[in-house]
Design goal:
Layout: E1 6-9, H1 19-34, E2 38-41, H2 55-65, H3 89-102, E3 105-108, H4 112-124, H5 149-157, E4 163-166, E5 173-178, E6 182-187, E7 195-197, H6 205-215, E8 220-224, H7 231-241, E9 247-251, E10 254-255, H8 268-271, E11 280-281, E12 288-289, H9 299-307, H10 322-328, E13 339-340, H11 343-356, H12 359-372, H13 379-389, H14 399-403, H15 415-421, H16 426-438, H17 445-459, H18 463-475, H19 483-490, H20 492-506
Parallel strand pairs: 1-2, 8-9, 10-13
Antiparallel strand pairs: 3-4, 4-7, 5-6, 11-12
This protein binds one RNA strand of 75 nucleotides through α4, β6, α6, β13 and α11.
Length: 507
RNA sequence: GGCCCGUUCGUCUAGUGGUUAGGACGCAAGGUUUUCAUCCUUGAAACAGGAGUUCGAUUCUCCUACGGGCUACCA
């Protein structure tokens, strides 16, 4: 790419950013970095009625946590600022006027009620109401194409509400190029004359978007597929302004794992997995939605998973660092079809990332959990514990459940296992085992193994008869790492104590 | 309803006219671990349907079906 690559992520601050939005941001980020370009954040807050105050900060925080921060945006490197459309409000009127002057747009005075009536009317007759040349000059709509100039001026100066609509050309087949889909063709006769400028003095998405992308010198627009239907309008707007159009890439949607439709913000907690990167508190209702961060996912695992949803490198590699993703990313390998989201695969990625972390890192992450359980222990001990249990874990949050017996005596014994493994004779056997253990001077893995195994062999009983109840005594259930590791970790005293506890409780 | 986009194992996907249709998640079986998990091996599992083009279609074209998106003075 010889030109200067500038891409933007342009969310609307109406709430938390969900994973579909994060993926759009990610693909923009990867594309920008791949081409040594700039990743811009623009806040599209032209709809005052849907504005949510904490949303913008949430978006910034989410990108930060994902490690895909913007290069340019609100409060950062403001070369093309401001980056909030509400702060650019005065700008758009001028461009709407330009279109009006050139004859690419017109005033419309129809009220929402009148338009609804037209739509209903058409529907009743089995027709589709389109606000374009089919209807606009037939006298049933009130706009500057049918009204005289005096009438229009009169209405405006009388304070009558109006919008500015785009005047879609007639009888033309637009052939557009999409970077992931190839050619897209649309007949302009099927297009609505979209509102560009609202009666509240704000531009609509369509106008603001085109004006800002142009002014901010955006080279590639990478956005969700839900925008594909407005590509013709946007293409026409660039033509009307006589501006060079950026290249477009429309990303397929992320679908619900089960059932129908695209994943939406409301799905998350209902379906049992988060749809947001970070926990989010709804300002109005106070409802709290789960986040991947709070659920214990590593951000790099989360990003790795998202990158492979709708994109693939064409090789069999699945684990990518962010740098590797930047290196491998290519819009041409983005898939055209929608992808169902998979919570299972997300967990798998997290497990992979957890296994890759060092014991030092994991021990540090484990510390708060230990504190929560009122356990303090020395660092080397904790690291040793982590090394013994990490391969069983998917999340750091699993650690305590997998290792509590390294820090405190079991307080209960799993009933089913006890019933099966603790027979009538087990008590006596365990008592004898205690005496064996007591005689081991240097309580190392090797010595414990030699002595205990030797004793079992001499007794001519099955290993299971001893080892299973022993495990039950030390762990409280039939799970966990090698028993000799556990015994030497907790020490001779605790081992004996736990066996005696078990004898008292189970015999 | 109209317009647009899509359709390979249950899911994510590789595949660009000739392949035993490959990988991953998940699932199942076996092995390892005298436990559990990990790990290893193996297995089941897919080209939506129909026409055409072609010596030959998963791959190209058309139709149908299905899925998805949009259809607001929301983005």
């Amino acid at each position: 790419m010889s030109e200067n690559v500038r891409v933007r992520f342009a969310p609307s601050p109406t709430g938390a950013l969900h994973i579909g939005g994060v993926r759009t941001a990610l693909f923009n980020y990867l594309f920008a970095k791949k081409h040594k370009g700039t990743f811009v954040l623009r806040i599209e807050d032209t709809d005052q009625t849907r504005y949510v105050a904490n949303a913008e900060q949430y978006i910034v925080d989410a990108l930060e946590w994902c490690n895909i921060p913007f290069d340019e945006g609100p409060g950062k490197n403001e070369k093309f600022g401001p980056y909030r459309q509400s702060e650019r409000k005065d700008l758009y009127k001028k461009y709407a006027d330009e279109l009006l002057e050139k004859g690419w747009a017109y005033y419309a005075f129809d009220t929402s009620e009148e338009l609804d009536a037209h739509r209903k009317d058409h529907e009743a007759n089995g027709k589709t109401f389109i606000y374009n040349w089919h209807n606009r000059e037939k006298g049933r709509l009130v706009n500057s194409l049918v009204l005289s100039e005096e009438e229009v001026q009169q209405k405006i100066s009388a304070g009558e509400k109006y919008v500015v609509r785009f005047k879609t050309p007639q009888d033309e087949v637009l052939v557009m190029q999409d970077e992931v889909r190839g050619e897209v063709k649309v007949n302009t006769n099927t297009l609505d004359d979209k509102v560009l400028f609202k009666s509240d003095g704000m531009p609509t998405y369509h106008l603001a978007n085109i004006v800002d992308d142009h002014l901010m010198e955006i080279s590639h627009v990478i956005r969700g597929e839900e925008w594909l239907p407005s590509l013709p309008l946007h293409t026409l707007l660039y033509r009307a302004f006589e501006w060079e159009s950026p290249k477009f890439a429309h990303l397929s949607l992320i679908l619900k794992p089960v059932g129908k439709g695209k994943l939406s913000k409301r799905d998350g907690d209902k379906l049992g997995f988060p749809v947001f990167p970070l926990e989010y508190t709804n300002e109005k209702t106070g409802d709290v939605s789960r986040g991947y961060r709070e659920d214990g996912y590593f951000s790099d695992a989360f990003i790795n998973m998202l990158a492979l949803l709708g994109w693939n490198p064409g090789t069999e590699q699945e684990l990518f660092s962010l740098e590797q993703l930047v290196e491998a990313f290519d819009l041409a390998r983005v898939s055209k079809s929608g992808a169902k989201f998979s919570p299972d695969k997300t967990k798998w990625f997290n497990q992979q990332y957890l296994q890759q972390k060092t014991e030092e890192e994991l021990a540090t992450l484990f510390l708060p959990l230990l504190e929560k359980n009122n356990v303090s222990s020395d660092r080397t001990y904790i690291q040793k514990v982590v090394s013994l249990i990490k391969e069983r874990a998917v999340f750091v949050d699993d650690f305590w459940g997998l290792s509590s017996f390294f820090f405190e005596n079991p307080t209960e014994y799993e009933a089913k296992a006890a019933k099966k493994q603790w027979k009538e004779t087990t008590g006596d056997l365990m008592t004898e085992l205690v005496t064996v253990i007591e005689t081991i001077e240097d309580f190392s893995i090797e010595n414990a193994q030699t002595d205990i195994k030797g004793w079992i062999t001499s007794k001519e009983i099955g290993f299971g008869k001893v080892m299973q109840p022993l495990r039950l005594s030390l762990v409280g259930k039939l799970a966990g790492p090698d028993l000799f590791e556990i015994m030497t970790m907790i020490g001779k005293e605790a081992t004996i104590k736990r066996i005696q506890n078990a004898i008292a409780a189970l015999s």
